[in-house]
Specification:
This is Deoxyribose-phosphate aldolase. The chain is α+β, with helices and mostly antiparallel strands. It contains five helices and 14 strands.
Length: 246
Protein backbone atom coordinates (compact mmCIF):
# COMPACT_ATOMS: atom_id res chain seq x y z
CA UNK A 1 0.00 0.00 0.00
CA UNK A 2 2.82 2.35 0.91
CA UNK A 3 4.58 1.55 -2.36
CA UNK A 4 1.41 2.33 -4.34
CA UNK A 5 0.98 5.66 -2.52
CA UNK A 6 4.59 6.55 -3.23
CA UNK A 7 4.13 5.83 -6.92
CA UNK A 8 1.03 8.06 -7.04
CA UNK A 9 2.92 10.85 -5.31
CA UNK A 10 5.84 10.57 -7.73
CA UNK A 11 3.39 10.61 -10.65
CA UNK A 12 1.72 13.79 -9.37
CA UNK A 13 5.07 15.49 -8.85
CA UNK A 14 6.13 14.60 -12.40
CA UNK A 15 2.87 16.07 -13.76
CA UNK A 16 3.51 19.27 -11.80
CA UNK A 17 7.07 19.54 -13.10
CA UNK A 18 5.90 18.92 -16.68
CA UNK A 19 3.13 21.50 -16.32
CA UNK A 20 5.51 24.18 -15.02
CA UNK A 21 8.08 23.35 -17.67
CA UNK A 22 5.51 23.52 -20.47
CA UNK A 23 4.64 27.15 -19.71
CA UNK A 24 6.12 29.67 -22.13
CA UNK A 25 8.45 32.42 -20.96
CA UNK A 26 5.68 34.97 -21.49
CA UNK A 27 3.24 32.92 -19.38
CA UNK A 28 5.77 32.63 -16.56
CA UNK A 29 6.43 36.39 -16.53
CA UNK A 30 2.73 37.24 -16.63
CA UNK A 31 2.12 34.74 -13.83
CA UNK A 32 4.77 36.44 -11.70
CA UNK A 33 3.22 39.82 -12.48
CA UNK A 34 -0.23 38.64 -11.37
CA UNK A 35 1.25 37.41 -8.09
CA UNK A 36 3.08 40.73 -7.58
CA UNK A 37 -0.10 42.74 -8.19
CA UNK A 38 -2.46 40.71 -6.02
CA UNK A 39 -2.35 36.99 -6.78
CA UNK A 40 -5.14 34.96 -5.21
CA UNK A 41 -6.81 38.10 -3.87
CA UNK A 42 -8.19 38.68 -7.37
CA UNK A 43 -10.12 35.40 -7.38
CA UNK A 44 -12.54 36.10 -4.53
CA UNK A 45 -12.59 39.88 -4.16
CA UNK A 46 -15.50 42.15 -4.94
CA UNK A 47 -14.01 45.50 -5.92
CA UNK A 48 -15.66 48.90 -6.15
CA UNK A 49 -14.31 52.30 -7.16
CA UNK A 50 -15.26 55.60 -8.79
CA UNK A 51 -13.93 56.58 -12.20
CA UNK A 52 -14.94 59.86 -13.83
CA UNK A 53 -17.99 60.26 -11.59
CA UNK A 54 -19.23 56.73 -12.35
CA UNK A 55 -19.36 54.05 -9.65
CA UNK A 56 -18.09 50.60 -10.67
CA UNK A 57 -18.34 47.20 -9.01
CA UNK A 58 -16.24 44.32 -10.33
CA UNK A 59 -16.03 40.60 -9.63
CA UNK A 60 -14.00 38.20 -11.75
CA UNK A 61 -13.16 34.59 -10.93
CA UNK A 62 -11.61 32.00 -13.26
CA UNK A 63 -15.12 30.82 -14.24
CA UNK A 64 -17.44 33.81 -13.99
CA UNK A 65 -17.53 37.58 -13.88
CA UNK A 66 -19.87 40.48 -13.25
CA UNK A 67 -19.08 44.12 -13.93
CA UNK A 68 -21.53 46.91 -13.12
CA UNK A 69 -21.56 50.71 -13.20
CA UNK A 70 -24.02 53.27 -11.87
CA UNK A 71 -24.48 56.94 -12.69
CA UNK A 72 -27.16 59.59 -13.01
CA UNK A 73 -28.04 61.33 -16.27
CA UNK A 74 -31.08 63.10 -17.75
CA UNK A 75 -33.05 59.84 -17.80
CA UNK A 76 -32.54 59.08 -14.11
CA UNK A 77 -30.41 56.58 -12.18
CA UNK A 78 -28.74 54.28 -14.69
CA UNK A 79 -27.24 50.88 -13.87
CA UNK A 80 -25.40 48.74 -16.41
CA UNK A 81 -24.56 45.10 -15.64
CA UNK A 82 -22.30 42.92 -17.80
CA UNK A 83 -21.75 39.28 -16.88
CA UNK A 84 -21.54 35.78 -18.36
CA UNK A 85 -25.22 36.03 -19.27
CA UNK A 86 -24.94 39.25 -21.29
CA UNK A 87 -25.68 42.94 -20.78
CA UNK A 88 -28.62 44.60 -18.98
CA UNK A 89 -29.37 48.31 -18.49
CA UNK A 90 -31.91 49.58 -15.97
CA UNK A 91 -33.09 53.15 -15.43
CA UNK A 92 -34.63 53.94 -12.04
CA UNK A 93 -34.87 50.18 -11.47
CA UNK A 94 -36.75 49.36 -14.69
CA UNK A 95 -35.02 47.22 -17.32
CA UNK A 96 -34.60 48.83 -20.75
CA UNK A 97 -35.51 46.36 -23.50
CA UNK A 98 -35.38 48.74 -26.47
CA UNK A 99 -31.59 49.01 -26.84
CA UNK A 100 -30.24 48.27 -30.30
CA UNK A 101 -27.46 45.72 -30.75
CA UNK A 102 -25.14 48.60 -31.58
CA UNK A 103 -25.90 50.36 -28.29
CA UNK A 104 -25.57 47.14 -26.30
CA UNK A 105 -22.18 46.56 -27.92
CA UNK A 106 -21.00 50.08 -27.17
CA UNK A 107 -22.10 49.98 -23.54
CA UNK A 108 -20.62 46.51 -23.04
CA UNK A 109 -17.26 47.57 -24.47
CA UNK A 110 -17.21 50.65 -22.25
CA UNK A 111 -17.87 48.67 -19.05
CA UNK A 112 -15.48 45.88 -20.03
CA UNK A 113 -12.68 48.31 -20.88
CA UNK A 114 -12.69 49.96 -17.46
CA UNK A 115 -12.81 46.57 -15.71
CA UNK A 116 -9.99 45.21 -17.88
CA UNK A 117 -7.56 48.01 -17.08
CA UNK A 118 -8.51 48.16 -13.40
CA UNK A 119 -7.76 44.42 -13.05
CA UNK A 120 -4.44 44.40 -14.90
CA UNK A 121 -2.49 42.19 -15.12
CA UNK A 122 -5.01 39.58 -13.95
CA UNK A 123 -6.91 39.46 -17.25
CA UNK A 124 -3.78 38.58 -19.21
CA UNK A 125 -4.24 34.93 -18.27
CA UNK A 126 -7.65 34.68 -19.92
CA UNK A 127 -7.82 31.67 -22.28
CA UNK A 128 -8.31 33.95 -25.31
CA UNK A 129 -5.10 35.92 -24.63
CA UNK A 130 -2.11 34.96 -26.78
CA UNK A 131 1.14 36.06 -25.13
CA UNK A 132 4.60 36.26 -26.68
CA UNK A 133 7.90 37.29 -25.12
CA UNK A 134 9.84 40.00 -26.94
CA UNK A 135 12.90 40.19 -24.69
CA UNK A 136 14.27 42.70 -22.20
CA UNK A 137 14.27 46.41 -22.99
CA UNK A 138 15.09 49.60 -21.09
CA UNK A 139 12.80 52.51 -20.25
CA UNK A 140 14.15 55.46 -18.27
CA UNK A 141 17.08 53.49 -16.89
CA UNK A 142 15.02 50.47 -15.76
CA UNK A 143 14.93 47.02 -17.36
CA UNK A 144 11.61 45.53 -18.43
CA UNK A 145 10.30 42.30 -19.92
CA UNK A 146 8.37 43.23 -23.05
CA UNK A 147 5.26 41.09 -23.55
CA UNK A 148 3.00 41.24 -26.60
CA UNK A 149 -0.64 40.19 -26.21
CA UNK A 150 -3.12 39.48 -28.99
CA UNK A 151 -6.42 37.61 -28.77
CA UNK A 152 -8.11 34.63 -30.34
CA UNK A 153 -11.23 35.50 -32.30
CA UNK A 154 -13.17 32.85 -30.36
CA UNK A 155 -13.59 34.14 -26.82
CA UNK A 156 -11.67 37.35 -27.52
CA UNK A 157 -14.75 39.56 -27.69
CA UNK A 158 -15.53 42.22 -30.26
CA UNK A 159 -12.08 43.75 -29.76
CA UNK A 160 -10.17 40.54 -30.47
CA UNK A 161 -8.01 42.27 -33.10
CA UNK A 162 -6.57 44.81 -30.60
CA UNK A 163 -2.84 44.50 -29.88
CA UNK A 164 -1.23 45.21 -26.51
CA UNK A 165 2.35 45.63 -25.31
CA UNK A 166 3.21 45.40 -21.62
CA UNK A 167 6.47 46.34 -19.94
CA UNK A 168 6.92 44.29 -16.77
CA UNK A 169 9.74 45.10 -14.34
CA UNK A 170 12.59 42.57 -14.35
CA UNK A 171 13.10 42.99 -10.59
CA UNK A 172 9.60 43.56 -9.18
CA UNK A 173 7.28 42.27 -11.96
CA UNK A 174 5.13 45.41 -11.82
CA UNK A 175 3.44 46.58 -15.04
CA UNK A 176 4.79 50.13 -15.22
CA UNK A 177 3.98 50.85 -18.89
CA UNK A 178 1.66 49.56 -21.57
CA UNK A 179 0.65 50.45 -25.12
CA UNK A 180 -2.21 49.26 -27.27
CA UNK A 181 -3.87 49.71 -30.63
CA UNK A 182 -7.64 49.54 -31.07
CA UNK A 183 -10.10 49.61 -33.96
CA UNK A 184 -13.44 50.65 -32.43
CA UNK A 185 -14.69 54.24 -32.47
CA UNK A 186 -12.38 55.23 -35.31
CA UNK A 187 -9.36 53.36 -34.00
CA UNK A 188 -6.06 54.63 -32.64
CA UNK A 189 -3.13 53.81 -30.41
CA UNK A 190 -2.31 54.74 -26.79
CA UNK A 191 0.61 54.58 -24.37
CA UNK A 192 0.13 54.53 -20.59
CA UNK A 193 2.58 55.27 -17.80
CA UNK A 194 1.82 54.46 -14.14
CA UNK A 195 1.41 57.73 -12.25
CA UNK A 196 0.28 56.55 -8.82
CA UNK A 197 -0.36 53.32 -6.91
CA UNK A 198 -2.94 52.38 -4.27
CA UNK A 199 -2.72 49.04 -2.46
CA UNK A 200 -6.11 48.00 -1.06
CA UNK A 201 -7.10 44.56 0.21
CA UNK A 202 -3.84 43.04 -0.99
CA UNK A 203 -4.34 44.24 -4.57
CA UNK A 204 -2.21 46.83 -6.36
CA UNK A 205 -4.36 49.41 -8.19
CA UNK A 206 -2.57 51.71 -10.62
CA UNK A 207 -3.42 55.13 -12.02
CA UNK A 208 -2.06 56.12 -15.41
CA UNK A 209 -1.07 59.01 -17.60
CA UNK A 210 -2.66 58.31 -20.99
CA UNK A 211 -0.71 59.45 -24.09
CA UNK A 212 -1.45 59.51 -27.80
CA UNK A 213 0.74 60.07 -30.90
CA UNK A 214 0.18 62.75 -33.51
CA UNK A 215 -0.71 60.06 -36.08
CA UNK A 216 -3.39 57.64 -34.88
CA UNK A 217 -2.08 55.06 -37.37
CA UNK A 218 1.29 54.85 -35.62
CA UNK A 219 2.30 51.17 -35.14
CA UNK A 220 1.98 50.14 -31.52
CA UNK A 221 5.56 48.87 -31.44
CA UNK A 222 6.80 52.43 -32.11
CA UNK A 223 5.10 53.93 -29.07
CA UNK A 224 7.90 53.23 -26.60
CA UNK A 225 10.43 55.14 -28.69
CA UNK A 226 8.01 58.06 -29.11
CA UNK A 227 7.41 58.13 -25.36
CA UNK A 228 11.13 58.14 -24.56
CA UNK A 229 11.78 60.92 -27.07
CA UNK A 230 8.91 63.02 -25.67
CA UNK A 231 6.88 62.94 -28.89
CA UNK A 232 3.59 61.78 -27.33
CA UNK A 233 0.78 64.10 -26.25
CA UNK A 234 -0.78 63.71 -22.80
CA UNK A 235 -4.44 62.98 -23.54
CA UNK A 236 -5.92 62.22 -20.11
CA UNK A 237 -5.39 60.83 -16.65
CA UNK A 238 -6.80 57.46 -15.59
CA UNK A 239 -7.49 57.71 -11.84
CA UNK A 240 -9.46 55.27 -9.70
CA UNK A 241 -10.95 56.82 -6.56
CA UNK A 242 -12.70 55.57 -3.40
CA UNK A 243 -11.41 52.01 -3.92
CA UNK A 244 -12.90 49.29 -1.72
CA UNK A 245 -12.12 45.57 -1.68
CA UNK A 246 -14.38 43.03 0.04
Amino acid sequence: MRSKSSLIMIFLVLILIWSCGSRTEAEKIVGNAIVAHGGENYFTSHISFDFRDIHYQIFKSPKEYEYSREFTDSTGRVKDVLNNGGFIRTVNGAQIDTLTDERVGAFSRSVNSVAYFAFLPYGLNDPAAIKSYEGITEIRGENYHQIKVTFKEEGGGEDFDDVFLYWIGVEDFYVDYLAYSYHTDGGGVRFREVSDVNEVGGIRFQNYLNFKPMDKNTPVDKMKELYISGELELLSEINLENIEVN
